[in-house]
Amino acid sequence: MIKLAKVAIVMGSNSDLPVVKGAIDKLKEFGVEFEARVISAHRTPQAAEEFAKGAEDRGVSVIIAAAGKAAHLGGVIAAYTTLPVIALPIKSSLMDGLDSLLSMVQMPSGIPVATVAVNGAENAGILAVQMLALSDKSLSDKLKKFKEDMAAAVAEKDKKLQAELAEM
Ligand code: RP5
């Protein structure tokens, strides 16, 4: 049985993939079906429009848009759909990703995109899962367990630190 993608990932270039993989890995970890495409807001604007306009009919609930440099992909996608768009700024220039971050985060009123940190691919994946979890109890349970595991890992690190300090 073919499962429909709940999350659509779109990236401006295949050079973004090494970073975007962090989001893909998170979606896989939570068992979320996804589709992924290379589409550029500047180099293939028509494909970006078609992709965004068709996403809802394909069963997609959340879109992650990753791009670097003058990163307009998230905003352009958001202009053509009412689905929530998570923008992932890629550090792909000499400006350390600040150009991508500002291009994505400084959206005009009316067309929001939820921008994560520069190269913050994992958080883009987690945020997408959190959006889906609003109507999916099993995902919501997995997210709770994920947070508990994180808290346990920090507690373990603290325990180690206390032991090391006692030895000093
Ligand atoms: C952006 O330009 C892409 O998202 C990528 O981050 C950057 C460089 O693209 P390539 O020249 O590597 O294709 O549109």
Can you describe this structure?
This protein folds into two domains: 7-135, 3-Layer(aba) Sandwich (Rossmann fold); 139-168. The protein has six helices and five strands; from the N terminus they run E-H-E-H-E-H-E-H-E-H-H. It has helices spanning 17-29, 45-55, 73-79, 98-105, 121-133, 137-167; strands at residues 7-11, 34-38, 62-68, 85-90, 114-115. Strands 2-1-3-4-5 form a five-stranded parallel sheet, with helices on both faces. Helix 5 (121-133) crosses helix 6 (137-167).
List ligands, each type once: 5-O-phosphono-beta-D-ribofuranose
Compute the average pLDDT: 97
Tell me the number of strands.
5
Uncertain runs: none
Q: Rg from C-alpha positions? A: 18 Å
The coarse silhouette is globular
How many helices? The count is 6
Instruction: Give the N-to-C terminal Cα separation.
Output: 59 Å
Largest sheet: 5 strands, parallel
> If you consult CATH, what is the topology of the largest domain?
Rossmann fold
CATH class of the largest domain: Alpha Beta
Helix vs. strand class:
alpha/beta
